[in-house]
Amino acid sequence: MSRVNIEIFLGILLVLITSSLVLVYGINEEERMAEYSAWEKARSIEVGAELFSAQCSRCHGTQGLGIQGLCPPLNDRNFFDSRLVEVAWSGTLEDYIVSTVSSGRLASTRPQLYPGEGTPAMPSFHENYGGPLREDQVRNIAAFILNWEETAQLIEVATGPVEDAVGTDITVELPEGDAVNGEALAVSIGCAACHIQAPTGPAWLADSGQVGIGERAAQRIADPDYTGNAQTAEQYLLESIVMSGVYLVPDYQDLMPNNYGETLAKQDVADLIAYMLTLK
Question: Span 247-270, mean pLDDT?
Answer without folding.
Answer: 87
